[in-house]
Specification:
Layout lengths: L21 E6 L17 H6 L4 E6 L1 H4 L9 E5 L5 E5 L2 E5 L1 H10 L1 H5 L4 E3 L11 E4 L5 E4 L2 H9 L5 E3 L6 H22 L4 H18 L1 H13 L5 H17 L4 H12 L8 H15 L6 H13 L3 H5 L5 H4 L8
Parallel strand pairs: 1-2, 1-6, 3-7, 6-9
Antiparallel strand pairs: 3-4, 4-5, 7-8
Helix pairs in contact: 3-5, 6-9, 7-8, 7-9, 7-10, 8-9, 10-11, 11-12
The structure holds iron/sulfur cluster (SF4).
Iron/sulfur cluster (SF4) binds next to α2.
């Protein structure tokens, strides 16, 4: 699974153990495996060639797993008279694969629990995350979830999941990758045996990132940790992770980044002279107006913090977004 390949550039805030590819589940057909009902595949070069440099893809085809061969007759979601959504054969409604697909997902719980993310094939009645056609009496409606994917999401509601089609959208792609990297750091911490203190430190390092996604959820996380007892770390950690991942799913915006940048500026209030403060304020304002990318005010802040170090800021992953999250172009 792990290749030993370095996935991120070292930074001042780098942590140990970040030197292996990140385990990600994926619908097999996206890697080019000929497992589709028609004997074809849905090879996705961006996923394989670009994300594959950082992710250790672990492929799985639930329809093969439940014994459907290649080629096979197509299946689809269908709304029954009772209102229930079932996954049935297109040419024979009596052939129902719903339970088998759910069982397949349940049997993979241990594997899913060790993943840092999952990339699914859109539109599939087994694999897709959303907008799957549900057939009934009238025109099909795109409101379904693949049966295997739905059970996996129910079992692991915090797992970063995205569809291959949505990865073409820069904002969604960046959001997914960010959640994956954070999940990876979480799994590393968990693997070492997480103490309450570790949890507090993890939160401190990710605070600013959460703030750039949602201030409300950030406050909820703070309250959760403030009220938590040290003797129920695992329980608190589980609740924290779920809330964290829900928060990160909310897209970061330019306005929220400005609030975070201004918050960081506060740490430089005393050490900076008037000219430096003006330069910083001007850069943040240009970013707010959309005239500069986020990397510019962050680079300037890093420059000032090199001269006037602050431990909290140095350890914050927010200040290392460009390097730790694959240096992808930041759309915001
Ligand atoms: S079941 Fe999933 S992995 Fe298998 S062919 Fe369909 S979309 Fe691809």
């Amino acid at each position: 699974m792990a290749s030993g390949k370095v996935i991120v550039e070292e930074t001042s805030a780098e942590i140990e153990g970040q030197h292996s590819k990140i385990p990600i589940g994926i619908s097999s057909c996206l890697l080019g495996e000929k497992v589709r009902y028609d004997g074809g595949h849905k090879y996705n070069p961006y996923i394989v060639k670009t994300l594959g440099q950082y992710f250790d893809f672990q492929a799985f085809c639930p329809e093969l797993d439940i014994g459907l061969g290649v080629p096979r007759k197509p299946i689809r979601l269908s709304q029954q008279g009772s209102g229930a959504i079932r996954c049935i054969a297109v040419d024979n409604p009596k052939l129902d694969f719903t339970d088998a697909l759910e069982k397949s997902a349940n049997e993979k719980k241990q594997w899913h629990g060790n993943l840092c993310g999952y990339i699914l094939k859109k539109g599939s009645p087994s694999c897709a995350m959303e907008r799957v056609k549900i057939w009934g009496d009238a025109t099909p409606i795109r409101e379904g979830t693949g049966i295997y994917a739905g059970k996996m999401m129910e079992n692991f509601p915090y797992l970063p999941i995205e569809e291959e089609g949505r990865l073409g959208d820069a904002v969604l792609r960046e959001n997914f990758i960010r959640r994956v990297f954070i999940m990876h750091r979480w799994m590393q911490l968990k693997g070492q045996g997480m103490t309450f203190n570790d949890l507090l430190k993890f939160h401190a390092r990710h605070k600013l990132i959460v703030m750039s996604h949602t201030q409300d959820r950030y406050r909820e996380l703070e309250q959760l940790l403030a009220a938590a007892g040290k003797d129920n770390v695992l329980e608190v950690a589980e609740e924290y992770l779920l809330k964290l991942m829900q928060a990160l799913k909310i897209p970061a915006t330019r306005g929220k980044h400005v609030i975070v940048l201004q918050h960081i500026q506060g740490y430089l209030k005393k050490p900076l002279n008037a000219a430096d403060k003006l330069e910083l304020a001007d850069t943040v304002e240009k970013y707010r107006l959309g005239q500069l990318p986020l990397s510019v005010p962050i680079t300037l802040l890093k420059h000032f913090f090199r001269k006037h170090p602050d431990e909290y800021i140095a350890n914050s992953w927010y200040m290392n977004l460009d390097s730790d999250e694959m240096s992808l172009p930041n759309p915001i």
